[in-house]
Design goal:
The complex is a heterodimer.
Chain A lengths: L6 H29 L3 H7 L10 H11 L3 H29 L5
Helix pairs in contact in A: 1-4, 3-4
Chain B lengths: L2 H34 L6 H4 L11 H9 L2 H31 L6 H8 L1 H4 L6 H10 L6 H5 L6 H12 L4 H8 L4 H12 L1 H12 L1
Classes of the chains: A mainly alpha, B mainly alpha.
């Protein structure tokens, strides 16, 4: 304020950097949440028409409980967890490089 | 912008917000109306917000007499308090360790810790059950709580909270002659209270 920063610059250069740690938390949690959702598919579309709205998690459920292919489902689960791990560890690394920690 | 125009814009914003709030309130109104409907009506009537048949509190009376609600609420309270108490201890300790202590592999152990967030909870039902049984906690209240004592979500949240606290506070306390326990109790735990409160709200609901 004293140095003449307007509300936009104050938010951009002071508030946002101080929110960094919290934003990283929210981003990673939101990413993981978004990728581990299947309820809407179950309730609304069942993955159809012809798999157009399918997601990985629901695909795993289909393989295990509709096609009774437990092996394929387990393999898909392992792959999906590995992908999630790489995704979240990667995004954490990238994000933490860009933010400011007080310590 | 003239004050009149400002008022108009504010009114428009209020109207838009009210419309949004109303949309979100409809399911709750629906629930309330359905609970007041006396005779179990046809499916078409269930879907309407305005009940056509008789309404009253009969359903509530019946439900209350049907089950042991006081006991169930007491158990829920015990479970909630037990889980939350356990979680607060583990979560702030683990968050502190990941934020402040330096040990080999800290980053990667933390990433592995986050794996819990990537698994859909139902996957853990069987492993949790076998662990509970081998701990001899099966069919006991602590056994219901135990799987929730650690939380990756909370640990992550507390790690971020601890990291946003300037180290100067700790240096000042150390200079003032505080030992580690005093430092954690009187300085750090006070400063991370907002984080713990946020976690508590999410954890209970």
């Amino acid at each position: 304020m004293l140095e003449g920063a307007g509300p936009v610059r104050r938010f951009r250069h002071v508030t946002l950097p101080l929110l960094g740690p919290t934003l990283v938390f929210v981003l990673v949690i939101a990413l993981l949440n978004a990728l581990t959702q299947a309820d809407q598919i179950v309730v609304m579309t069942d993955g159809g028409p012809s798999d157009a709205t399918n997601v990985l998690l629901f695909y795993i459920y289909q393989q295990a409980h509709q096609n009774n292919d437990i092996g394929l489902a387990a393999a898909a689960t392992a792959v999906s967890v590995a992908v999630l791990f790489v995704l979240s560890a990667g995004s954490l690394r990238v994000l933490e490089r860009g933010i400011h920690y007080e310590s | 912008m003239s004050p009149r125009r400002g008022r108009e814009i504010r009114l428009l914003i209020m109207l838009a917000l009210a419309a949004g709030a109303l949309t979100w309130a409809v399911p709750f109104a629906w629930m309330l109306v359905a609970s007041l409907r006396l005779e179990s009506a046809s499916a078409a009537d269930i879907a309407s917000l305005i009940p056509s048949g008789r309404i009253g509190f009969g359903n509530f009376r019946e439900a209350w007499n049907e089950g042991a609600f006081p006991l169930w609420y007491f158990n829920t309270f015990l479970m909630c308090a037990g889980i939350l108490g356990g979680q607060c201890v583990t979560v702030s300790a683990a968050g502190y360790a990941f934020a402040r202590l330096s040990f080999p592999g800290r980053t990667w152990i933390f990433y592995l810790f986050l794996l819990q967030l990537m698994l859909v909870p139902p996957i853990l039902i069987m492993p949790n059950l076998t662990t509970i049984i081998s701990l001899g906690l099966y069919d006991k209240l602590p056994g219901v709580m135990a799987p929730y004592f650690a939380s990756a979500f909370g640990t992550f949240l507390m790690r971020q909270t601890f990291r946003s606290i300037p180290r100067d506070y700790e240096d000042a306390a150390t200079l003032g002659g505080a030992n580690l326990v005093q430092l954690i109790r009187h300085v750090l735990l006070r400063l991370v209270r907002p984080g713990l409160a946020a976690f508590a709200i999410v954890s209970v609901s």
